[in-house]
Amino acid sequence: MTSFVIMKRIMSFLAYGNVVVAFSAAGMAASWMALDLSVPINYPLFVFLATLASYGYMHLQEAEQTQNTEHPVLAFSLRNKRYLQWQTVLAFIGALMVLTQFSLPLILWLAPVAMLAALYPPNPLIRKGLRQIPGAKLPLIAGCWSWLSAVLPLVHLTAVDSLYIVWGGVQHFLWIYALAIAFDIRDLATDNGRMLTLPQRGLNKAVYIAWACIGLVELGILVEGLVNDHNWWMIIGRLIPLEMSSLALWRIRRKVDPLFISFHVEALPILYAILMFLSP
């Protein structure tokens, strides 16, 4: 077995086993710490564990209901069902242990995201899950991510004004919305046509919308940097992952590579957090 094959298997395991997405969500929540905001380390840890548990639950539920062996993530979930079950349970227990360290208001504000995650895949209350509601998939994903990674840290864990909270939520929403379009392109062959995802309405149109979202975030970062007198290294560090997102969408429009989307594109928020911390 060549080193390339081994590396590809490791990447597949990390991507389809929900590890990369969990680190990405935690990285976005932790990135505020680079701006000297008082986000404690246990909050990104909670986001990591909660994301690992939520995605494990959602993928296992959907894989069990659909028995889909064509979708790369669901096929992985079916092949590694026992491992993902243990990983999901342990991550859920860990998230609950960290949750006990939070204040009651923060716990209550986390409840809507937990409810949406429970109802997102097929479930006893909504047979096909919230993801099957036409046009709901992208807003649900981007909304939950921005709520966890921006709104709650800025509202409950720091002392910033309301305008900055709104901007933080919008920034993360637009970027995740753009990245999620890449995943909808990956799922184009397996998603139910009645879901009316953006790529189902036109692949090129969906990519243009993603580029517009990224452009708005980049413009906002430039304005924020000038207003708050951020150093240019930090501004450039925040812009690099966004530009890489745009380039990734250009590549995806030409060739859909599920592993590239699930690993490299999914990992861009991790790079964002790293560059934020490395900025002077």
Notes on the protein architecture:
Helix 6 (104-119) runs antiparallel to helix 7 (137-156) and helix 7 packs antiparallel against helix 8 (162-186). It is built from 13 helices and no strands. The chain starts with a helix and ends with a helix. The mean pLDDT is 91. The chain is mainly α. Helix content is 75%, strand content 0%. The chain has helices spanning 3-16, 19-30, 42-66, 72-79, 81-99, 104-119, 137-156, 162-186, 198-201, 203-227, 232-254, 258-265, 268-278.
Keywords for this entry:
single chain; 280 residues; mainly alpha; 13 helices; 75% helix
In terms of quaternary structure, the protein is single chain
Which value, in Å, is the CA radius of gyration?
A: 18 Å
* Tally of contiguous helical segments: 13
The portion of residues forming beta strands comes to under 5%
The end-to-end distance, rounded to whole angstroms, is 43 Å
Structural class: mainly alpha
Biggest beta sheet summary: none
Shape: globular
Order of helices and strands: HHHHHHHHHHHHH
Topology, number of strands: 0
Query: What is the helix fraction of residues, given as a range?
Result: over 70%
Unreliably modeled segments: none
Mean pLDDT: 91
Topology (elements, then pairings):
Blueprint: H1 3-16, H2 19-30, H3 42-66, H4 72-79, H5 81-99, H6 104-119, H7 137-156, H8 162-186, H9 198-201, H10 203-227, H11 232-254, H12 258-265, H13 268-278
Helix pairs in contact: 2-3, 2-7, 2-13, 3-4, 3-5, 6-7, 7-8, 8-10, 8-11, 8-12, 10-11, 11-13
In short:
By secondary structure, the chain is mostly helical. Helices cover 75% and strands 0% of the residues. The chain has helices at 3-16, 19-30, 42-66, 72-79, 81-99, 104-119, 137-156, 162-186, 198-201, 203-227, 232-254, 258-265, 268-278.
